[in-house]
């Protein structure tokens, strides 16, 4: 999301983040209602086009989204009306912005009950546990399987463990992937948690576990490079052979042996 859409999202987010945080535990309801709006936008191209159309005046769009959210929390309606009054570069950006705010509201409820750190650790643990489960990851993305079945699979994987917010995030990622891989959505939510905690999360793929000293040193180096505190999450992948692959947001630093060999092959082929 760039340009006009990015500016619109930031404006709405800056205005309503304090409102959602002040909602405390009720932020969970706001989240669920915003997710319902995402589903409505994804399932109706005409609704999505109308609500994102810059040629349609704000008042009719506000009235329409209020009808869609009939019975919702007034704070949810107010956020949705601010979204539809904003300008979007593409219809899909409206749904994407709404989903982001829905996840932010869900995480705010974890902030309110003091479980945000646990949610972060549990989502990373779930991501790591799926690293070698190719068939499971494929199932969670495949639209040929009913959404309810994908959600039930995630429930079985978690086995009732973890916080309520972790289970809600994971189930949402499975039921409504919106064209993304399951793990990609979990990583996206992890980035949102980092934003709420005013720091960056870097995922490091290494051939072997890093020692606490190595992890701390790498976090310090990345923090200086990125200009903000960094939490390092390490994923062990024996196929890496050597070196490290570091991803912090959109930035990827790949110094693995396999990467260097691939570069050499490309140079020889060229």
Automatic annotation (TrEMBL):
Membrane topology category: Peripheral membrane protein
Pfam families from the UniProt entry: OSCP (PF00213)
UniProt keyword terms in alphabetical order: ATP synthesis, Cell membrane, CF(1), Hydrogen ion transport, Ion transport, Membrane, Transport
Location within or outside the cell: Cell membrane; Membrane
Keyword Repeat set for record: no
Family named by the database record: Belongs to the ATPase delta chain family.
NCBIfam families assigned to the protein according to its UniProt record, in alphabetical order: PRK13430.1 (NF009967)
Role played: F(1)F(0) ATP synthase produces ATP from ADP in the presence of a proton or sodium gradient. F-type ATPases consist of two structural domains, F(1) containing the extramembraneous catalytic core and F(0) containing the membrane proton channel, linked together by a central stalk and a peripheral stalk. During catalysis, ATP synthesis in the catalytic domain of F(1) is coupled via a rotary mechanism of the central stalk subunits to proton translocation. This protein is part of the stalk that links CF(0) to CF(1). It either transmits conformational changes from CF(0) to CF(1) or is implicated in proton conduction.
Protein name, per record: ATP synthase subunit delta
Organism (species): Cellulomonas wangleii
């Amino acid at each position: 999301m760039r340009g006009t859409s990015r500016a619109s999202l930031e404006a709405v987010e800056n205005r309503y983040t304090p409102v959602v945080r002040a909602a405390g535990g009720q932020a969970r309801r706001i989240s669920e209602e915003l997710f319902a709006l995402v589903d409505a936008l994804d399932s109706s191209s005409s609704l999505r086009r109308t609500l994102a159309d810059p040629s349609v005046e704000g008042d009719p769009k506000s009235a329409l989204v209020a009808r869609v959210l009939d019975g919702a929390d007034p704070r949810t309606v107010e956020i949705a009306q601010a979204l539809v009054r904003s300008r979007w570069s593409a219809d899909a950006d409206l749904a994407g912005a709404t989903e982001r705010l829905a996840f932010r509201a869900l995480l705010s409820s974890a902030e309110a009950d003091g479980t945000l750190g646990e949610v972060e650790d549990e989502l990373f643990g779930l991501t790591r546990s799926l690293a070698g489960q190719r068939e499971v990851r494929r199932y969670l993305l495949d639209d040929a399987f009913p959404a309810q079945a994908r959600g039930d699979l995630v429930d079985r994987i978690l086995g009732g463990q973890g916080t309520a917010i972790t289970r809600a995030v994971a189930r949402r990622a499975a039921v409504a992937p919106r064209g993304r891989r399951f793990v990609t959505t979990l990583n996206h939510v992890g980035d949102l948690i980092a934003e709420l905690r005013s720091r960056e999360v870097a995922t490091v793929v290494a051939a072997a576990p890093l020692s606490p000293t190595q992890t701390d040193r790498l976090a310090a180096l990345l923090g200086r490079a990125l200009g903000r505190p960094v939490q390092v999450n390490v994923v062990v992948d024996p196929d890496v052979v050597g070196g490290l692959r570091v991803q912090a947001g959109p930035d990827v630093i790949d110094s693995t042996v396999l990467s260097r060999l691939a570069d050499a092959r490309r140079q020889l082929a060229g």
